[in-house]
């Protein structure tokens, strides 16, 4: 039985409006045999609920935000109803989001690059309705804090999503403005390589979540092109 099928069975058995992460994870421990399966499943459940609460952060869950969420996961047709049930339960209010963020944080080592990937995914949902609202930005900032991301790191991630074509390209790339041309090139090649889907999967991001790499690469490429034109190097 696939992970999504077993995950669907767990979600189907959630009593009433219970979306407590401890309840779900207890079922995960009893259902999945390997630690890799449990981590994948716990990541997926936590991310689904956290995405729903992200969409609710500004008070209204829009169709665009739901569509943006669906772009992050490739859910089998047979399990979409169960996933929709968890999403709909979680989106009723924002309360409890910190528990899901902490659960995701516990799945990976401190300082893991996957935390930035997740915040990128949540930004993808937040901006789906055309802008990132103040309450959404507060929500994202708190999640980033629970993940152990520094304020400069969160500022760099934010700059990739909030009007990146007008933002500071050096901040978007995360490099000092005084860096030499060669340093800019080396840094750019490294972060582009780190954003490749194969690299994301290697550090624990489920295959269903790889869609976040496309927008991230577009922002990085745009920032690099602006610096390259400004400095006139090939």
Describe the structure in your own words:
- This protein has 234 residues and is mainly α.
- The chain has 13 helices and no strands.
- Helix 3 runs parallel beside helix 7.
- The longest helix is centred in the first third of the chain and has 22 residues.
- 38% of the residues are buried.
In short:
The chain is mainly α and 234 residues long. It contains 13 helices and no strands. It has one domain.
Please report the total strand number as a whole number: 0
Domain count, please report it.
1
Distance between the termini: 52 Å
Query: Uncertain regions: pLDDT < 50 for 5+ in a row?
Result: none
Radius of gyration: 18 Å
Shape category: globular
DSSP helical segment count: 13
Determine the fraction of residues in helical runs and give it as a percent range.
55-70%
Percent of residues in β-strands: under 5%
Q: Summarize the helix and strand pattern as letters.
A: HHHHHHHHHHHHH
Biggest sheet layout: none
Structural class: mainly alpha
Mean pLDDT: 80
């Amino acid at each position: 039985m696939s992970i999504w099928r077993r995950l669907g069975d767990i979600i189907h058995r959630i009593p009433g409006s219970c979306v407590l992460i401890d309840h779900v994870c207890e079922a995960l421990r009893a259902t999945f045999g390997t630690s890799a399966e449990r981590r994948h499943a716990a990541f997926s459940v936590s991310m689904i609920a956290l995405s729903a609460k992200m969409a609710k952060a500004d008070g209204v869950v829009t169709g665009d935000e739901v569509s943006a969420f669906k772009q992050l996961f490739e859910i089998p047709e047979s399990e979409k109803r169960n996933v929709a049930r968890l999403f709909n339960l979680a989106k009723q209010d924002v309360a409890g989001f910190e528990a899901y963020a902490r659960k995701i944080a516990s799945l990976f080592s401190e300082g893991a690059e996957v935390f930035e990937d997740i915040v990128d995914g949540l930004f993808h949902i937040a901006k789906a309705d055309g802008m990132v609202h103040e309450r959404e930005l507060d929500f994202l900032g708190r999640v980033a804090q629970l993940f152990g991301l520094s304020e400069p790191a969160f500022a760099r991630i934010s700059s990739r999503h909030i009007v990146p074509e007008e933002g500071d390209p050096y901040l978007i790339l995360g490099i000092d403005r005084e860096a030499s041309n060669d340093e800019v090139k080396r840094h750019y090649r490294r972060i582009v390589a780190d954003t490749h889907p194969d690299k994301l999967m290697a550090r624990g991001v489920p295959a269903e979540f790889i869609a976040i790499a496309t927008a991230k690469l577009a922002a990085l490429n745009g920032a690099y092109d602006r610096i390259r034109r400004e400095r006139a190097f090939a």
